[in-house]
Known about the structure:
The chain has 2 domains: 1-115, Four Helix Bundle (Hemerythrin (Met), subunit A) (Up-down Bundle); 123-277, no CATH class. With 277 residues, it is mostly helical. Helices cover 77% and strands 0% of the residues.
Amino acid sequence: MVNDLVPYGLAAIFYAIAAFLASIHWVQRQSRWGRWANYALGVGAICHGVAVILRWTAHGGLPAFAPFESISFFTWVMVVIYLAVQGFYGLRVLNIFVAPIALIFLALALAFPYHSRPLPPVLQASWTEVFPIVHVVVSLAAYAFFTLACVAAVVYLLQDRQLKAKSPHSLYQRLPSLEMAQHLCQVMVSAGFPALVVTMITGAIWSNQAWGSPWLWEGKQGLSLVMLLIYVFYLHTRNIAGWPARRTAWLLIVGFVSVLVTFLGATLLAPGQHQFG
C-alpha cells in the first residue's frame, strides 16, 4: 500500500507545482515559466503512471474500480492526453487550466478510501478477456477527451468575450486564437465521441456476458446515453446545422457537466452494477 501511495503523493505535489508555475507564466511573459510548468506537469504524470503500474501489479488487475482508483486513473489519462496534444500544438499557456484540474481530481481521489475494490464474482470469470479492459480504459479516455474539449470551449468563450470588449485585458492575449480553440474543441470531441461509442458497445457485450442482458436500465447507463446524445447534438449543430461556434462551445460545457454527473454522481451515489468509472 505504502509503495504506490508515495508516487501518488509525488504526482499531486508536482501537479501543484505545475499549477503554481503556470499561474506565473500566465501573469508574466517569460517563456521559461511555461517551460518549467510543463516539466513539472510531465514529472507529475510520470509519478502518477508509476503509481498506477505499481497498484496494477500489486492487485493483479486494472486499478479502476474503487472510486479512488477510477478518479485517479482518469486524471492520469487526461494529463497524458493533454501533454501529447500540447506537445503537438505547442500551447503551454493551457497549463493554467489543465494543471489545476489535474490537481483537483487527484486530490478528490486521494480523499476516498485507499483500498482496492475486488470485482463482483459474476465479473471475475470474464476479467481476463479483452472487453472489460477496453470498456473501462476507453470510457475514462472518453471522459478525458471531453474534459479537454470543455477547456478549449472555455478558452474560446474567454477570447470571444475579450474581442468584443471595449478594453480587452492584456492577459487574455496569451490564450490561443478563436480558430485554434475551435479546432481543439473539434479534435477533442472527434476523439472522445468514438471512444464513448466503443465504451457503450463493449459495455453491452460485457453486460450480456455477465448478466444475460446488454442493457440493465440502471442510472449510469441512462446517463451515458444522455451524454452520448449531447455530443451527437454537438456534432450535428457544429457540422451540419452550422451553429455559431460560441453556441456550440456552451454545448461542450453542458457536455462536461454530463460527464461529471455520469462519472462521479452516478458512480458514487447510485452505482448499481457500475462500481467503477
